[in-house]
Design goal:
heterodimer, A: 275 residues, alpha/beta, Rossmann fold, 6-stranded mixed sheet, 10 helices, 39% helix, B: 279 residues, 2 domains, globular
């Protein structure tokens, strides 16, 4: 079966510090990323800020072109530097961003936010667009009454539901989620993670889930890819990587994650009492 | 004697749709050398309480309390000038967004020295020397060179270290940290938390840590207050809270942690509220 997503030696360079006199410096944000992802699976990409995980997410979502290397969606090579993204390609991949306060246009009503992808990429009629938006609102746990409201009337969790609904309007097969729950409270985060799990079951979605929160990753991912300074340092199935991290950086990352279990608290308090 | 003692704190904001109670009667107590964590989600009033102590709330806020004492001195009745002598010297605070909390127009060194100029009578040269020591204490490499750096030239972790250096400049008795690591990566978060805990232990400071992250609570706190919608839900020492939470909301928060997931679905606070109402 063709994988839902494949990248071959994808690199991305950014020119920085270009001064008036033309002195240039190049940052290699991605240094040759190879990955394949089966349909219906969730790949988590973890790493610190600056490791290139969002750069990779934007390349997969066909927002930015890679500097070199190949991107294949459903086995079809895509090069947005040469050819405009077609509606068919755009329909396959959608993205949800981290900050639901910044990623929704404050001057658009929810209905317009949801129907715009259909307007741009499909021949659907106005009535059809409206029906599908209404249906999608219910799918993500909102109601048709929300159709005519503006984003500022919603809480952070509700806004993230709107962002997810917008991404699903085109029936994509691959959803790129760039830190979709980092800006949310714990209980809201749980609701959104449940929603994502339900939607994946219902539509057979493939997820690329970018996150720095290992407890979330452990909950949602099938495979985990750890990135460090533009390179993949470890890419293995979830259970294997959590049971036995191989790379030093993965170990550092795991060790830095706070533990909220009773045994660790007791150990800490004992160490503190011992002085 | 408790370091900080607040009884029945109420904070109300005047809004266009009438008064909004952000905090309805919550009491706090911190002892010297103790780490108190205040946990809650957005809107729980966890930051508002400490902003009220610092006198940093906007004029639209009405603050009332039966008592608000720092080392036995009443903060409510003292003059603004007297209060300013305590705030910044004996009580100091660090905030969530380190880069936004520093003044972008002044160097890190200037901002640390400004605290010393305000609260001590050290001469200029001694202030500079002390600023270098402070930057060393919070683990900023090449402190002499970093004195001249502006906030935008430093990373988020470095800026938070500068904030901490400013906050501990006058050896405060109480440090209030409002989500000090929320904007930072886990590895940097660990470094900053370790630093705060080390400074707290070395100086015997009282530390109030405001956070929504149960992991951070588990790694740092002695005692925990759980807040929800401006009310205190539960107060307990850290071990009992995690081992045997009494309140339904606390249980909901703990079970919403992805690492505590037992089945394929995460329980949410709403699930718990319904279960509680049925019971």
């Amino acid at each position: 079966m063709t994988p839902a997503l494949e990248t071959r030696a994808v690199t991305r360079d950014y020119d920085v510090g270009a001064t008036f006199f033309g002195k240039r410096r190049v940052v290699h944000a991605l240094k040759g990323i190879d990955l394949t992802l089966e349909r219906g699976k969730t790949l988590a990409i973890v790493g610190e800020s600056g490791c290139g995980k969002s750069t990779l997410a934007r390349i997969i979502a066909m927002i930015d072109p890679p500097t070199s290397g190949e991107l294949l969606i459903d086995g079809e090579p895509i090069d947005i530097a040469k050819h405009r993204v077609t509606s068919d390609q755009r329909r396959k991949v959608q993205i949800v961003f981290q900050n639901p306060y910044g990623s929704l246009n404050p001057r658009q009503k929810v209905g317009d936010i949801l129907t715009e992808p259909l307007l741009l990429n499909t021949p659907a009629s106005a009535a059809e667009r409206r029906d599908r938006a209404m249906g999608m609102l219910q799918k993500v746990g909102l109601t048709p009454a929300h159709y005519n409201r503006y984003p500022h009337m919603f809480s952070g969790g509700q806004r993230q539901r709107i962002a997810i609904a917008r991404a699903l309007m085109l029936n994509p097969s691959l959803l790129v989620l760039d830190e979709p729950v980092s800006a949310l409270d714990l209980s809201v985060q749980a609701q959104i993670l449940n929603l994502l799990a339900d939607l994946q079951d219902e539509f057979g979605l493939t997820y690329v889930f970018v996150s720095h929160d290992l407890s979330v990753v452990r909950y949602i991912a099938d495979e985990v890819m750890v990135m460090y300074f533009g390179e993949v340092v470890e890419h293995r199935p979830r259970d294997a990587i959590f049971a036995d991290p191989q790379h030093d950086y993965t170990k550092v990352l795991f060790a830095a994650t706070p533990r909220a279990d009773v045994a660790s608290i007791r150990a800490r308090l004992e160490a503190k009492a011992a002085g | 004697m408790s370091l900080l003692e607040i009884e029945n704190l109420r904070v109300t904001f005047d809004t266009s749709s009438g008064p909004f109670a952000a905090l309805s009667g919550v009491s706090y107590r911190v002892d010297p050398g103790e780490v108190l964590a205040i946990v809650g989600e957005s809107g729980s009033g966890k930051s508002v309480a400490m902003l009220a102590v610092m006198g940093l709330l906007p004029p639209s806020a009405t603050v009332t309390a039966d008592a608000m004492r720092f080392e036995g001195r009443d903060l409510l009745t003292m003059s603004a000038a007297e209060r300013r002598k305590i705030i910044g010297r004996d009580i100091s605070m660090i905030f969530q967004e380190p880069i936004a909390s520093l003044n972008p127009c002044f160097t890190a060194g200037f901002q640390i020295e400004e605290v010393l100029a305000r609260h001590t009578d050290l001469p200029r040269r001694a202030r500079r020397q002390r600023a270098i020591e402070l930057m060393q204490a919070v683990g900023i490499p090449e402190p002499k060179r970093r004195l001249a750096s502006f906030p935008h030239q430093m990373s988020g972790g470095q800026c938070q270290r500068v904030m901490i250096a400013m906050a501990i400049a006058c050896a405060p008795k109480l440090l209030i940290a409002d989500e000090p690591t929320t904007a930072l990566d886990v590895t940097i978060q660990k470094q900053i938390l370790d630093l705060l805990m080390r400074l707290q232990a070395d100086h015997g400071m009282g530390l109030i840590l405001i956070t929504h992250d149960m992991g951070v609570v588990a790694e740092t706190a002695d005692r925990v207050i759980v807040q929800y919608m401006g009310r205190k839900m539960e107060e307990a020492d850290v071990l009992s809270l995690f081992e045997n939470p009494q309140n339904a909301y606390t249980r909901a928060l703990l079970s919403a942690l992805p690492e505590n997931a037992t089945g394929t679905r995460l329980p949410t606070v709403a699930d718990f509220r319904l279960a509680g109402e049925d019971a």
